Amino acid sequence: METTVNARLVQLLADKAELPVDELGPDRTLEEIGLDSLHLMEVALWVQREYGAIVPEGDLHHDLTVREALSYLDEKTAAVR
């Protein structure tokens, strides 16, 4: 079975936050799950490397919820799939 992009993005956030996927909580902010600016930069670089999608600096920020961040990243990667 092929992994969907969204599942890969969920796993990426979980890995960066060092949390199990089920503890991400869609309404928790990126800050609440422990992601700092370096983590967010790493996420943006991973998306660019894996999908060729550019995530401008500042588009991912600490007060985004996990749901908002995943929706944004999925939209960015969908444009290049």
Description:
This protein has 81 residues and is mainly α. The protein is 51% helix and 0% strand. Helix 1 (5-17) packs across helix 3.
Task: Reconstruct the topology from this structure.
Layout: H1 5-17, H2 37-51, H3 66-78
Provide a compact summary of the structure.
The chain has 81 residues and is mostly helical. Helix content is 51%, strand content 0%.
How much helix is in the residues? 40-55%
Structural class: mainly alpha
Largest sheet: none
Strand content bin: under 5%
Radius of gyration: 12 Å
Principal-axes geometry comes out as globular
Order of helices and strands: HHH
Give the mean pLDDT: 91
Distance between the termini: 18 Å
Low-confidence region ranges: none
List keywords for this structure.
81 residues, mainly alpha, 51% helix, 0% strand, globular
